[in-house]
Every structure is written in structure tokens, then in C-alpha cells.
Sequence to fold (388 residues):
Amino acid sequence: MYDCIIVHYSEIGIKGKNRVMFENRLKRNLSMALGNRARVYKRYGRLVCDLLTKEEKEIEEIISLLKITPGVANFGLAKKARLEFENIRQVVFSLLKNRKFDSFKVLTKRSYKEFPMTSLEINKALGEEIAAKFGKRIDLKNPELTIHVEICEKESFVYLDKFKGVGGLPVGCSGKVVCLLSGGIDSPTAAFLMVKRGCPVVLIHFFNKTINTRQALKKVEDIAKVLAKAQIKSKLYLIPFYKLQTEIIKVVPAKYRMVIYRRLMMEIANRIARKEEAKAIVTGDSIGQVASQTLENLQCIYAVAEYPVFAPLIGMNKEEIVELAKTIGTYEISIRPYQDCCSFMIAEHPATKMSLNLAEEIERNIKDKSTLIDDAIKESKILILKWT
Ligand code: ATP
Ligand code: MG
Fold:
């Protein structure tokens, strides 16, 4: 029934050369993400994706991908018509055939000004005929169905279903970052917010091989795959944390362990950021959510970083984060039961206000810390994940 998807991007704030760069980047990203499922090209301030698949399931997948593709403001599942009113009319009626609706309006955008009818004339002609033929009510303010007609220089497009995108900047418009990714709800959401601002996000996950079963790693890989929908592919570092943790448990009192774990994660993140030529380190912290996320403890943890640390969820409430995770599609994976690498050997009441001096002092007792860090990096595994 449909033959293409018409994609609109938000143009606010992008002008001149930047705008061309933005368009080209989005076009390239979509071509890479959709592969042989669609052919992507530019048309008068829009992108068109000609569908090369008729499989309903594949089209649904494409829709779910576009909903979280950075740079996409909105899009419609469309059918093309020739540049003649009669053909546009036929396409509109063919799309309306099995549609149930009471009220409607026709909304035409005429980008190609040589077309002999104005937008208003098209709206009126189609609207009156649809109202008469189907006995439906025209409602310009709050219609149940909006029939979109877009007239470009080579063809026109008709669509009924318009979907909202996430906006933002196409991936690659901003610098690379690394993100500390757990299997929880928060960090995947934080990673996504950076992707949304155009940053390719390299993911770093610490696992404990004695408690993280294959299932736990599968969970993180599945999260990375969902993020790959938004950023084409995800690079995931899997870092064994067991030896470092064992040393920490020997010398660090239980109530301070979480902060020390996280300081060592940060140290390893520095090394990976350097190797990846990333410009920042991202975490899923939100103030006060757990004991390690008081301002005092975050100061202890972030002090280790050699790069700016961004925590895009810092001021968000849990419900807001959950809402966003559901939109992205990571929520359902994040709530699968699993044991975090750090949930064992942690005090029931961890310290909420650790001082930097104390953290540094305790850390000096960890034997062979730098060798252990070297080993963890050496023993790490890198995966490249795509969305399908
Ligand atoms: P999340 O839902 O992201 O797991 P959380 O509320 O459970 O967060 P913590 O477990 O204290 O909070 O983790 C805070 C942040 O530390 C995470 O958002 C993530 O950036 C990082 N982090 C925690 N555990 C890991 C891990 N195993 N691997 C990589 N990063 C981690
Ligand atoms: Mg967690």
C-alpha cells in the first residue's frame, strides 16, 4: 500500500553550510541504518526513503528505528503520486479505502510552486469530495485524521500516519564520548541522550565473571543493539572486574566499596576514552538516586576523570527516566532480572558522604592497582553490535 517514508528534520538553528552538512549526515546515517531495506535521497528540504521491502514486519522495524533516529523531527508512511491533481486524488482515495474515521482535514504543503493549484485549492477540492463521498465531517481544529499532501518538484506524496521523531542532531555531528553502561535503566537512557545530540557513544560495561552469567552479558548486548538503532552501530567494551573487586574487598571497608569501585571504573574509562579519542565520559547518575550518587560521593568519583564527565540524567526523576527508557525501547530489557557486578559485597548502608582525601588514602592500600587495571583492559572484549 505504501511505497516510501517521507522524513522531515528540524531545521531550527541550522543554516547555511551547517544545514547541508546536517542533511548529508542524516541521509548517510539513514542509508547505513536501513541498508537494503530502503533507498534514501533528498527532496526539497526532506528526505525520502523508498521502501525496498514490502514485509509488514520490516516496515514496522523501520518505523521503530526512525522514531529514535537523531535528527528526525517527524515522518510519514507515504504513497507517491504524479504531479497531477487527478493522480493525487486517486492516491488519497486508495489510502482512505479501509480507513475508519469520523472527522478529518486535508493539509497540503506545496514546496513546488509551479504546481497549478495552491495548497488551499487542493485542501478544499479534496476535502469537499471526501466529505460528500464518505459522509465524513471536516474538522480543521481537532480532526481525527489528517490527510497530508506534499508537492515536490518531481512527484507528490500522500500520507495519513505521521510519527514523531526525537529531533536532535544526526550522529556524527558532535564528538565521540564513552559511556559507563550498566544493565540498569539509567545508563542506557543517558547514552541515548548523548546520541541524540549527535555524539557517537562507545559503551563500557564492567562484569564480574563469577556472578554475571551469559544471560547478564546478553542483556547488555541487547541494550547496545537498541542503542545501535539510533547510532547505526554500537561498540561495546566488556571489562572483567573480578580481580579488582577481590582486591577492593580485601582492603576497603564495605561501606566505602561502591565509591571505590566507581573510581576504578572511571580510571579505566579514562584509558578507553584516550584510546578511542573520545572527548568526554558519560554516566547514568541522577542526584540522590542511590547512595553513590550524593554530590559528595560523585565528587569523589568524578575527581578521577581526566575528561569532562556528563551525566545527562542528573536532574531527572526516576519516573521521567523510565518514561524515556520506554520510548527508546531499552526499558523492557533493563528490567530483566540480573545481578550487577557491584551488588555483591556492598554494605547495606553505604557511606553517603565520602571525602576525596579518604578515598585517595584507602585506594593506596589496593595492591598492584595499576597492574590490575592494565590486566582488566588487556582481558577486555570488544563487540560491534548492529540493530538487526
Ligand atoms: P543504572 O540504572 O545506570 O545501573 P543505578 O541507578 O543502578 O544506575 P549505580 O549502580 O550506582 O546506579 O550506577 C551509577 C552509574 O555508574 C551508572 O549509571 C553507570 O554509568 C555506572 N555503572 C554502574 N555499574 C556499572 C557497570 N557494571 N558497568 C559500567 N558502568 C557502571
Ligand atoms: Mg546500576
User: Anything to note?
Assistant: The first helix runs from residue 16 to 34. The pocket of magnesium ion (ligand 2) is lined by residues 182, 184, 340 (CB under 6 Å). The first strand starts at residue 4 and ends at 9.
